[in-house]
Amino acid sequence: MLQLMKLEMKKFKLGWYIKGALIADLIILALFISLNYIQQIEGDIFITNYEEAFLFIGAMVRGTFIVFAAVLIAQLIIEEYKNKTILIMFSYPVQRKKIIASKLFIVALLTFITIWISQILVTGAFFTLHGYFSFIPYSITITEWMKQTITIIPFAVAAAGTSLIPLYFGMRKHSVPITILSSLLVVSFACSYNPSFSVIAIIPVQFALAAVGIMIAYLAIRNIEKEDAI
User: Fold this and answer.
1) Shortest CA distance to 122 belongs to which of 78, 59, 191?
2) Taking the CB of residue 224, how many other CB atoms lie within 10 A of it?
3) I want to staple 4 with a disulfide (CB 3.0 to 4.6 A). Which of 51, 73, 102, 194 is the partner?
4) What share of the chain is helix, strand, coil (3-state, %, to 5)?
């Protein structure tokens, strides 16, 4: 499995993913800083403590990389089916199940790692900049920040599972646009944020969505031997 994953990552040259993730993190950081400036100017403050800041940043980070995961699914799987290049891989002396499983594991693993690291980087940069420019009415200690970075791990795990849901829609017609569009619909629900009620903060809902994504991946792997690649 590990060898297959290495071959897949080498084949598709996923350097764009790392560059895209860094750019996305900078954009998220800039947007959140801007939002805090705006709420200070207008006096309509709805982010009043560091827990809410983590939650809001988490919503943006997870939403962004669930869409990134859909792009990975489209590149690693959907386009292979659409262009029929998957037939070449299926001709190798390797079980189809292992081929598809390696691709999906890459998607889930990259999503988990990127969400966790991005949350750490964005929140760390945000509170560090606040120490110099003081643009928020609340603060955070290093200990509190470290606790929050550990707390987000189960949410990152859940997001990794949820990121597999677009596979179902993309495989229906082997459509890249549908794969990405479905990820936006998933994000609109899974990452919804509201000061009074936020789905993004309800861990049972997040794990329920993750279970759906994992089930979709399991069925895709289980049925791959029976399906015609074209």
Assistant:
1) 59
2) 18
3) 102
4) 80, 0, 20
